[in-house]
Amino acid sequence: MRIDKAKISEETKAKIVQMLNDAEDKSQAIMEAMEMIASEVNQELVNRIVEEARTVGSAALPQLSENEKKFFQRLKMGAKQSVTADQIDIIPVETVDKTLADIRTEYPILGLINFAPANVKHWLTGSKSGGALWGSLTAALSDSAELSATITGLNIEVSKLYAYCVIPKAIRDLEIGYVEKYFRAILAEAMYDGIAAGYINGDGKVAPVGILRKVGQTESDGTHSAKTVVSTLLGFSPLQMAPVLTALSNGGKRPVRDLHVIANPSDVYGYINPALYGDSVVGGYVQKSFMPLTVIEEPNIAAGKAAITMPGYFTMGFSGMKVEEYKETKALDDADLLIAKVYGNGRADDDNTAFIFNPQNLVPYITKVEEVSNP
After folding, report:
1. Which CATH number is 215-313+352-361 given?
2. N or C: which end of the chain has fewer CB within 10 A?
3. Confidence class of residue 138 from pLDDT cuts 50, 70 and 90?
4. What value, to the nearest 5°, has the Cα angle with vertex 78 and ends 74 and 81?
């Protein structure tokens, strides 16, 4: 859950400080503070959904499966009634799939990832090379026509992704369709943060193997080794991009197309845009790369590192998404603190699916000016 400090009032901040100072059980006080913060930060979302329920009613609500209806009816009753120490509610597969579809549309970086269907425990990922050959109907099969492939099994139930979800009473009092709408909005934000962080720099030990890390090389602590950050990429001309495209082709085994540059927003504004854009003859600015590049601003990648990659060569999946009450603290009167927990994993097909470089070494593009004189 991302916290916008500007949305937290000074009164709430003062209450939290006082509560933490007076508390004998610091862990419980911290969790209660999280509930207060989450409720206030999401107040705009709460107000919007409550107003929509008042003015629109159930006409605009999507159809829910029987599985979803049962889950959100229990959630609507409140954590105390819907979740006990002996019962863990499974978030419906349909809800997970729809949430992933929502965030893939809203956040471009997630469009680079192949998502295995929800609740699949094992998935195959790999790359292939080779092609088809023409021949007569009676000709013997040629060995050169066989497709060679590197197939790897991805065990999805390896790491756990947690998200804190506060369900205010104002939402629980609405129809279950609006409870589902609120829940998915909170879940989407949390899942985006977790997925983006895992995709970029997951350590491979308690998270996916991120694109900044090597798939097949680990350190003594079990985390995957960091890739070398190339410092020699200075621009986006054919000659400058040659090492990038060669690497992404994985030794010539796949074509390179639909390139995306992922970088911290500060590096996009300070280095990538000045190197990528130049004056247009007819006015304004145009990309000066010989291949189209889609730039993605992503706070989850640190300044000084950027990745050039293509969609479709990183697989991620989730299984057994559950929700339970946080048992270490008492729920507030107007909200329950829930934890959504999901098993998941992810990795790239190979180490060449992303080229890692330092964007701060890029040279700004300078428009060439030719002086023509009359003889």
Report:
1. 3.30.2320
2. C
3. very low
4. 70
